[in-house]
Amino acid sequence: MEYHFDFTSVMDRRGQDASAIDAVGTPGCPGAPKEGFDLIPMWVADLNFPYPQSITDAMTGRLQYPHLSYFGTPKGYIEAISWWQSTRNGVCDVTEENLGYDNGVLGCVAAAVRAVAEPGEGVLINTPAYIGFTSVIDNIGYKNIESPMTVRNGKWYMDLDDMEKKIRKHHIRAAVFCNPQNPVGRAWTKEEIREMMDLFEKYGVLCISDEVWSDIMLFGTKHVPAHTVSDYARTHTVSIYGTAKTFNLAGLYGAYDIIYDPYLRDRIRAIKDRTVYNKGNLLAYYALMGGYSEMGAAWVDEMNRVLSENAKMIFECTRDEFPGVWAAMPDATYMMFFDCREWCEKTGETMDEVLKKCHDVGVAVQDGRPFRGEWAFRMNHALPTSRVAEALRRMKQYVFVN
């Protein structure tokens, strides 16, 4: 069936409960634009595209019934996930037994850490890192043991030697792995993941793999689920997925995990059950079923083509027009991470000044320092290409001026 989707119209989300728009100008968020500039939201990791009609149809179909009662798992939910994982990722053995519901990725991360490590112990994480991970590890009483990634030939890589040193020194029992990686947009290869898993096997480390970005693959890149690379990976990985990044459904707070080892699965489920919070959201189930459909798959494929064009345009503009600023060409996600060290050292500007110049002209990028990027900002390019082009024009004219 042929579908037609709109990735060119500019969504006006003002006053529609979108933090990316309504929170701008409040403490801890990008500053409001100066008069004469409209807002281009490029900070929160959500979409500036309308999700496919199949999601609206699935939710409104359920809402025709005038109640949202206590409920069990809706018919079709598990089948939808099984179909999606088999057709998108080649994972053909997702069952009701190894599938678990989560009220969000971070809740599952917290439960998995608690299942294998004692409070006060360290959890290994590669940096730059998503601030949600480092915050939740701190908040539940564990220590972030950070292993900085390295850059070679314009790409980000894990530093396995450093990771091994940290594992040995801190007696690591759990590691949080971002696959694909946010904020740098790196899609890990099968060989890279296998080498990491071999290291984890050597020391008995559990891999908590955030795969929530796995649908956002650019330039035809294929996602490699972490649990598929070895026998050890299959039994020592907690794989966490969701629809928030793929379909802009973060407001429904729904995710799911795949855990194959029965003992590990039982421990994590027991911890989640004791917290009480981890109960399903009925509309999140229906939204997932609407997204995990033939229309949803076609929509994701078309969006990824648009995002690939955006990423290429941003990379080339940064390389050619922003002296002293660097970003890697991403393989996945709609986030890019920019290093401004050379620019700041050359001009004497601080990162606060760079960010303010961006925000003043409506380019609402996100401070990269909480992600462990000392001279960095993060940019979301999940917008119509015309808006990305306008953001780059403003940055060239007002921010990174030769």
First CA to last CA: what distance? 50 Å
User: What are the segments in which pLDDT stays under 50 over at least 5 consecutive residues?
Assistant: none
Q: What characterizes the major β-sheet?
A: 7 strands, mixed
The CATH topology of the largest domain is what? Answer: Aspartate Aminotransferase, domain 2
Number of helices: 15
Q: SSE string, helix = H, strand = E?
A: HEHHEHEHEEEHEHEHEHEHHHEEHHEEEH
> How many structural units, i.e. domains?
2
CATH architecture of the largest domain: 3-Layer(aba) Sandwich
Shape call: globular
Radius of gyration: 21 Å
Mean pLDDT rating: 97
Topology, number of strands: 15
Class per helix and strand makeup: alpha/beta
The portion of residues forming beta strands comes to: 5-15%
Helix fraction? 40-55%
Strand order of the largest sheet: 2-10-9-8-7-3-4
CATH class category name of the largest domain: Alpha Beta
Q: Any idea what the CATH superfamily of the largest domain is called?
A: Type I PLP-dependent aspartate aminotransferase-like (Major domain)
Folded structure, characterized:
Strands 2-10-9-8-7-3-4 form a seven-stranded mixed sheet, with helices on both faces. It has a four-stranded antiparallel sheet with strand order 11-12-15-14, covered by helices on one side. Strands 1-13 form a two-stranded parallel ribbon. Helix 6 (about 160-170) packs parallel to helix 7 (about 190-205). With about 400 residues, the chain is α/β, with parallel strands linked by helices. It folds into two domains: about 20-50 and about 295-400, Alpha-Beta Complex (Aspartate Aminotransferase, domain 1), CATH 3.90.1150; about 55-295, 3-Layer(aba) Sandwich (Aspartate Aminotransferase, domain 2), CATH 3.40.640. The chain is built from 15 helices and 15 strands. About 40% of the residues lie in helices and about 15% in strands.
